[in-house]
Design brief:
disordered C terminus, 30% helix, alpha/beta, 420 residues, five-stranded parallel beta sheet, homodimer, FAD/NAD(P)-binding domain
Chain lengths: 420, 420
């Protein structure tokens, strides 16, 4: 009898976890992704701030699943799902499924102001990260050559919109880049005079943390010279900078770390989605109206105890493991009644070197040890010993020398003035 | 009395060497480059074959010269030189000079077939390298999904045009990628069946080496499954592949490692140049007709003992050191009679893992120890301890596991299917 086919769209934290935990399943598993690598999103901000190279936080999907003989990796962009025929449409191909897992993640959303993207790139992909790295480093280069003081000030002003973990970590890293790494690199400007402004619409930064920890993080950011503007809603972003109400902040570099919207997966199966395009799933992660289609991670809106689960990797991974167990049971024709329940191990966020905040529910702490915990957790979840080793060394190096290593401005239209 | 100003265009091996050796000069030194980093060209082929990350072989120019207070780094693209006014024109700026050093290097040239570049990219810049890496990895991905056997064969055929050190090193590295790293990654194709063809117009590969070593290198390449075609002149390159005379090789991936042409520096000062655009310099590296303008490295055609010096980094570095001494003497009003003389320490080229050829003039050897020598030399000349450490570790890792780590397909138009 033919093995059931499980199609997983998206090889992020959630999708890969499903695939890995179906290693022994009597099924044919097909993982489809438009990219050939898994990206360790939580460290992407370090690529954007010249701390790490893209390859350090990415692992080829085929490499991760190489020894899983029941699994096939297809590098294609999915454009839709044909529910009638029960097939996924990936470019020119139709891939039939018995079970479908939608793990296509999210990308940054601009609350309807899509034109803001041109001036304030978000941070979701490697090309986003290298573009932001380029923008930041080019701003210092341009400032060095800019005689006009006003323009120079705008070039040395960096605005980050959104004070979640990513925004906070970006602010801390940019501050260190300007205060330490680049401090003695220039002759006509003092990079330490760079202004870093973190804008947050809600009343506190790191909203997912306790008010106490949020205050501690804010204090640490201030020590790093980061200016924090809470209760500030961005009205407009353009080539000049950012406006908040009637006030205008002149800044050449603006980074978007605010809203995200789910991938179009919801539309593919015209499911019921929430305001951010997340599919409203049942307690077993299945999509209402479909018994064999599931959504996890940032693609799913899962309500637990009346609250929406956050779009973080632990949620995606736990959902992935749960879903693998559920599908395995279904394949074996076993009953599987238990509902998914997210166990929150806690939240961590780092603020520059040697300081982080850790919210482990009952236990809450901030400072050096929270930072060490942050290091350990991130190294632990990084796929592949090689990447772990390289990241540890580069962190140690940057920690001791204050000099992140990947300070490269590379653009596709890179000019070739120097052949060497 | 005003300090003389020395303008160096190009921060490659040659230009940086001039700047570094003028550290103590009573002069104002300005280094102009369109990029913000020095690129360690000799290892660029490893970025193209997924062995290293760009940042591992690049160092920010400002970082290299940070402690040199008499030196200014300007990141701009030079578009010309105004000899009348004695100024360099860099974008919107005019930079005057008392001494001008042209160290702008070379880029790949197609002997008048510029349209070939679309099908056979060369390997001179980081974006070249990541593009080639993308092409190679995408070819395997496409082959995995290609039902048509003929098309699949074309996808798994890799042609390298030009069998100098770069071509040979590329061939060896691609062979290992297909024979080792990717061997177990695919389900429908066997990457080991990939065909790697090295095309050379002259009768022997590694023409700069002795016939004996060239033969040994050829044997090593054959052992790696590389097909060598000497005495073969490419007639055409297009989307289908490469034609040699009447024969057509169907190949989706073609890499250009043949000719290079010098940068337009010669035109800027309308100097007398050779067939490849290199400025014919005097024995003191000055440009005929100018006492204060010099050309070095790939920008210069220097004839020693009736032979043109090769476009390799040792030549550029030795010329750079010589020129720094010469300019220093001129500044001090001292006589400086000695002419430049290149001391050839020897040539090294590696053929995949554990094998290299070393031509040290009298001493010639091939095999494992030549390979160790190659490792040591390249690590030694790599700028910055951090880069050295990272490269050593990644080489050790790749050597032990046969798996290069940077197997990333990243394109600017990278699609965002997986938000994570």
């Amino acid at each position: 009898m033919k093995k059931p086919r499980i199609v997983i769209i998206g090889a992020g934290f959630g999708g890969l976890e499903v695939a890995k935990n179906l290693k022994k399943a009597q099924a044919q598993i097909i993982v489809i992704d438009g990219r050939n690598y898994f990206l360790f999103q939580p460290l992407l901000y370090q690529v954007a701030t010249a701390g790490l190279s893209p390859a350090d936080i990415a692992s080829p999907i085929r490499g991760v699943l190489r020894h899983q003989q029941n699994t096939d990796v297809v590098m294609k962009k999915v454009t839709g799902v044909d529910l009638q025929a029960q097939v996924v449409i990936a470019e020119n191909e139709k891939i039939s499924f018995d079970y479908l897992v939608l793990a296509t993640g999210a990308h940054h959303g601009y609350f309807g102001h899509d034109n803001w993207e041109n001036f304030a790139p978000g941070l979701k992909s490697i090309s986003d990260a290298t573009k932001i790295r380029r923008n930041i480093l080019l701003a210092f280069e341009a400032a060095e050559l800019e005689p006009d003081l006003e323009k120079r000030k705008a070039l040395l002003t960096f605005v980050i919109v959104g004070a979640g973990p990513t925004g906070v970590e970006l602010a801390g890293a940019i501050s260190e880049l300007s205060r330490r790494a680049l401090a003695s690199d220039f002759r006509h400007i003092d990079p330490r005079s760079a202004k870093i402004i973190l804008i947050e619409a809600s009343p506190q930064i790191l909203a997912s943390f306790s008010p106490g920890l949020s205050k501690k993080a804010a204090k640490a950011l201030l020590k790093h010279g980061v200016e924090i503007r809470t209760n500030s809603r961005v009205g407009d972003i353009n080539g000049e900078g950012v406006s908040i109400g009637s006030q205008k902040i002149l800044a050449k570099t603006v980074i978007w770390a605010a809203g995200v919207v789910a991938s179009p997966a919801g539309k593919w199966i015209d499911a019921d989605v929430d305001y951010a395009g997340r599919i409203k799933v049942r307690q077993d992660l299945s999509v209402p109206g479909h018994r064999n289609i599931f959504a996890i991670g940032d693609t799913a809106a899962f309500i637990q105890d009346g609250k929406l689960l956050p779009g973080v990797s632990p949620v995606a991974m736990q959902q992935g493991r749960y879903l693998a167990r559920l599908i395995n049971a279904k394949i074996k024709g076993k009953e599987f009644e238990s509902e998914f329940h997210y166990f929150n191990k806690g939240n961590l966020a780092t603020v520059g070197r040697s300081f982080a905040v850790a919210d482990l529910g009952r236990v809450k702490f901030a400072g050096f040890f929270a930072w060490v915990a942050w290091l350990v957790v991130h190294i632990y979840y990084l796929i592949g010993f090689r990447n772990r080793l390289l990241v540890i060394i580069q962190w140690a190096w940057a920690y001791l020398t204050f000099k992140p290593g990947a300070r490269l401005i590379v653009s596709p239209e890179e000019d070739d003035q120097t052949g060497d």
